[in-house]
């Protein structure tokens, strides 16, 4: 018969080696190496300093040198942490003492039974829980009822089951006694990371320096010292499950570096970024780490007039849409290629674009968000709308050829009010079966729905694009 030794407090060692893989969707895979002080037979071991937002059903443990050294029979996650509110809530019905300081400086001690704790958790009809303030009620030993007494509170003992640190408790069956090195892993909420990019352009706006940062947040309730840090970019599917509530409040701790510190590798259909040195990730902390750096990045500017961008598949009819005054949108484009000093797959994030003025000062042009961008793709950033280039779009004619056929003529007048040349791109969107029957400017179809005109304009020049299109549905 296997001997059973319960009631003996056995603690696993603190983590000697930690590894964090943080995902885009607010969780992380934690891997730690620890030592278990095994005893022969069935016994409990407590593993402290696990994340408060652990997904307990994800825990995995294995011996590093003896696969059959022990078996985990049961596991419990204890997160009833010691706090003033928790102790008082569990002390209701028990002995309590007050040390009250009187006006003359005298200390008066009052003892009695706690009838109501200051805070209580109540549930509504849907099971939603809310903390409410009840006020403290104490029945003194001489029979008086004190409402909200003030003073230093004492209780006779810490209520059973309360702990100082979130812990896993394993019921193990071990074949022998002795220290056993293990690796444990689990998933935890409370982690997040995002990318931020800064692009500084020269005065001409044609070349820039790029700096990429990773901003990681740890609100898991636990710190990880000298951990190997990995970040996984991609959309990992997870089944909907009940999560532990997220913790708020984080302090900024910016760990800046002069050079990129992340090694990138393809991992399945995702990309994995690994920090090239150990990092300490404290609880309630925001940490910034260098992701990428590039100098001499070539960029191009695009002024785009895209009047029908927000109308979807539009069915031509009597009333015209996408007409009137239009402000061209300013885009900055850069190729994510080795030839352009880049070439690393870039995680989704925010791009901030700055440019040097004639005086040499750096001013912000605008910012935009990018999705996960592979290498050899072009990044297109919307930074704002043009000030000195304006346009008017008109539908000059509309003719119904049949119940499902129409002929339309459009005019787009573009005015360059700058004292420098400018190139303006015009996109005209049409759906159904269509054919351009007349045009005063060179054009091409970018796809089945988008007709492009490119206008090279001198300073203060005005140009008009006019074309006729027939559409059948």
Task: Provide a concise account of the structure shown.
The protein has 473 residues and is mainly beta.
- Low-pLDDT stretches are 1-8, 241-259
Tally the helices: 1
Classify the helix fraction into a percent range.
under 10%
How does CATH name the architecture of one domain?
A: Sandwich
The major beta sheet can be summarized as:
11 strands, mixed
Overall SS class: mainly beta
Shape summary = elongated
Q: How would you explain this protein's 3D organization?
A:
This protein has 473 residues and is mainly β. Among the domains are: 4-13 and 36-80 and 163-189, no CATH class; 84-155, no CATH class; 300-336 and 376-472, Immunoglobulin-like (Sandwich), CATH 2.60.40. Helices cover 1% and strands 59% of the residues. It contains one helix and 35 strands. It has one helix spanning 84-90; strands at residues 4-5, 17-23, 27-38, 41-48, 54-63, 70-78, 95-101, 107-116, 119-123, 129-133, 137-140, 145-147, 152-155, 167-174, 178-189, 191-201, 207-218, 224-233, 251-254, 262-267, 270-275, 279-281, 285-306, 324-326, 329-335, 349-356, 362-370, 378-385, 389-402, 405-416, 422-429, 433-439, 444-445, 450-457, 462-472. The strands form six sheets. Strands 16, 17, 19, 23, 25, 26, 27, 28, 31, 33 and 34 form an eleven-stranded mixed β-sheet that branches. 24% of the residues are buried.
